[in-house]
Backbone:
């Protein structure tokens, strides 16, 4: 079985690794793939909550590795997708509870059962990160269009390359179209030019993500949300489909489109972008 | 520093453009593990070599890393002092051939004799 092990990582924390893992995993399962999402953030587990499975956990990843239970016992079946499973992280252990060899073996085991193994990497570049990438044959980097995140992403690209993995692909998360339009935020092309890797998807900043996480239902279920569409498109690209990039910057607000229709658009466009007060 | 493209023009960069330019510089440093001290040494060394032949305005010399088209670049910006562009002949260690011009070369607005 030529299953794919994809690690979702970022270097910097809080950029949306867990959200991305949950949404891509769900989206792939929705398209008929057999998927397991693995929470690699030992000690700070969250993937269970994003998927709404937090109260079903009995055994975790460390239990499996230490032989306290069988793999099957630790896998939690998703509420809605019959082909989606979660392997939760341990909450009361630390990152060094598992080593790289054990992690690689676990990935090998999971590959025999699933089409896709998605690994949610912890932030940072220490043991937890190394464990997360050791068994992967693909890497997805999540970054936000801001200095610290892109800088860390670049560092991760270097480490991934040094580990002998193929070139990672980028999910640019939390892009704010209005800010890009004003020139206050880097655009997709800016980040791609700086990082020099292939783009897998662009996810606009969206309140729907918080609502979805509050409910424990990934945003990808709701096609009306722009973040949900973004994740669905990214998952389709993972499956090899050629999905054109949705122009999130231009298709921003209804108000904007109305203005353009009514002829105020040209005047607005000629306005110079807002400049910063200090350089 | 770091927003060279905009220094010459009157156009002020947007915050997005500033971020991109700053990132290019910081990533060029990160990737090569080049710290400011080493860059300063490189600057001094380039300056000392070039100064043997050209009068360089030392205060305006800029040596920076840049990232363009997927490759790292070292950019040295060394303005030449216009008033006295003078080339002092620095005799080489070996005995030059007869066909090599001896003496001092002045390249000035008011050209002196090329002795």
Residues:
């Amino acid at each position: 079985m030529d299953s794919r092990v994809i690690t979702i990582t970022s270097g910097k924390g809080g950029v949306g690794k867990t959200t991305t893992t949950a949404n891509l995993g769900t989206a792939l399962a929705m398209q008929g793939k057999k998927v397991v999402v693995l929470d690699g953030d030992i000690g700070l587990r969250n993937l269970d909550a994003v998927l709404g499975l937090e109260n079903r956990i009995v055994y975790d990843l460390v239990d499996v590795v230490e032989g306290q239970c069988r793999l099957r016992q630790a896998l939690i079946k998703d509420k809605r997708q019959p082909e989606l499973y979660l392997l939760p992280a341990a909450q009361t252990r630390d990152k060094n509870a598992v080593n790289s060899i054990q992690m690689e073996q676990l990935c090998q085991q999971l590959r025999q059962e699933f089409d896709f193994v998605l690994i949610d990497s912890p932030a940072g570049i220490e043991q937890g990160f190394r464990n997360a990438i050791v068994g992967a044959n693909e890497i997805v980097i999540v970054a936000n269009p801001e200095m610290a995140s892109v800088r860390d992403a670049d560092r991760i690209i270097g480490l991934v390359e040094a580990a002998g993995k193929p070139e990672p692909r980028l999910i640019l998360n939390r892009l704010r179209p209005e800010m890009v339009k004003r020139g206050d935020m880097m655009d997709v092309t800016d980040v791609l030019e700086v990082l020099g890797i292939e783009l897998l998807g662009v996810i606009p900043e969206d309140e729907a993500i918080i609502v979805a996480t509050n409910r424990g239902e990934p945003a990808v279920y709701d096609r009306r949300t722009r973040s949900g569409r973004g994740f669905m498109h990214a998952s389709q690209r993972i499956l090899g489909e050629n999905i054109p990039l949705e122009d999130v910057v231009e298709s921003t607000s209804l108000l904007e489109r109305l203005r353009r229709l009514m002829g105020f658009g040209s005047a607005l466009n000629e306005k110079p972008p807002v400049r910063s007060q200090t350089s | 520093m770091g927003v060279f493209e905009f220094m010459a023009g009157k156009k002020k960069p947007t915050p997005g453009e500033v971020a991109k330019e700053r990132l290019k510089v910081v990533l060029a440093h990160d990737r090569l593990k080049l710290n400011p001290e080493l860059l300063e040494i490189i600057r001094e060394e380039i300056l000392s070599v070039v100064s043997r032949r050209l009068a360089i305005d030392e205060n305006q010399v800029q040596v920076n890393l840049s990232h363009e088209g997927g490759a790292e670049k070292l950019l040295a910006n060394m303005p030449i002092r216009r008033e006295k562009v003078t080339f002092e002949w620095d005799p080489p260690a070996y005995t030059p051939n007869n066909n090599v011009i001896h003496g001092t070369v002045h390249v000035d607005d008011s050209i002196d004799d090329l002795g």
User: Anything to note?
Assistant: The domain at 4-252 of chain A is CATH 3.40.50.300 (Rossmann fold). Chain A touches chain B through 24 residues (CB under 8 Å). The two ends of chain A are 55 Å apart (CA to CA). Chain A has one domain: 4-252.
